Amino acid sequence: MNYAIVYSSKTGNTARLAQTIRDTLGEKDCLYFGAPDPAAAEAGLLFVGFWTDKGQADEELTAFLKGLRGKRVFLFGTAGFGGSQPYFDQILDRVQAALDPSNRVVGRYMCQGRMPAPVRARYQAMAAQDPAKWQPMIDNFDRALSHPDETDLAALGRAVAELAL
Ligand SMILES: Cc1cc2nc3c(=O)[nH]c(=O)nc-3n(C[C@H](O)[C@H](O)[C@H](O)COP(=O)(O)O)c2cc1C
To answer: Is residue 77 within 6 Å of ligand 1 at its C-beta?
Structure first.
C-alpha cells in the first residue's frame, strides 16, 4: 500500500523523525513527503508529524488533519518538554482530536526535541529572579539538547516497521 509522510518542523527535529519513517518504509511506495498538501491525502495511510506549539500542533498541520476522511493515520511529534509519557499522551490526544471519526489512528509516537539557544538565555534571565521556578526549565532544556537521539529514532523505526502496510 502506498503511504504519505506529512509534517511540520520549524527547527528540524520532527523532520528527522519523518526521514526515519521514510528510511524504514522505503521510497518506492512513498506517494508524498513534505509539508501539509492536499496531494498527500491521495494515500490511504498517512504519517502525520508535528512540533508542539503551545501544547498543540501548529495551525497549518491541524487544518490538514481536520480535512482527512477515511484514512489510516500514524501521528508522530516532538516536544521541548519530555521524559513523561503522560505529557506526550495529552499532547497526542489534543492533536488527534482534530481528526474526523472516519479516520483510524494506527499508531502514535512522540519524543523530546531540542530547543533553540535563545530559549535557554530567556530561562536564565528568569532564573536570576526566581531560581526555584526557572532552574528546572534550564535543566529540562539541557536534557532536551541531545534529542531526538538514536534511541528515539530507533524506537520510532520499530513502531513503524511493526505496522501491517
Ligand atoms: C513558539 C514555540 C512554542 C513551543 N511550545 C511548546 C509547548 O507548548 N510544549 C513543549 O513541550 N514544547 C514546546 N516548544 C518546543 C518545540 O515543540 C520542540 O523544540 C520541537 O522539538 C521543535 O520541533 P521542530 O524542530 O520539528 O520544529 C515550543 C517551541 C516554540 C518555538
So the answer is: no
Question: For residue 75, what is its C-alpha cell?
Answer: 501521528
Pocket lining: 49 vs ligand 1, CB cutoff 6 Å: no
Please give the pLDDT value at position 164.
72
The amino acid that residue 91 corresponds to is: I
Q: For residue 151, name the pLDDT band (cuts at 50, 70, 90).
A: very high
Instruction: Report whether 72 contacts 104 (CB < 8 A).
Output: yes
Classified as helix, coil or strand, 159 is helix
* 43 touches 31 (CB < 8 A): yes
Residue nearest to atom 31 of ligand 1 (CA): 53
Q: What is the mean pLDDT of residues 70-78?
A: 98
pTM, to two decimals = 0.96
Give yes or no for residue 8 CB within 6 A of ligand 1. Answer: no
CB 118 near ligand 1, within 6 Å? no
Distance CA 146, CA 142 (A): 8
Closest alpha carbon to 83 in 132, 141, 23: 141
Instruction: Compute CA 58 distance to the chain's CA centroid, rounded to the nearest angstrom.
Output: 11
Mean predicted confidence (pLDDT) in 30-59? 97
The full set of domains in the chain, from first to last, is: 3-113+148-161 (3.40.50.360), 116-146 (no CATH)
User: Is the pLDDT score of 165 beyond 80?
Assistant: no
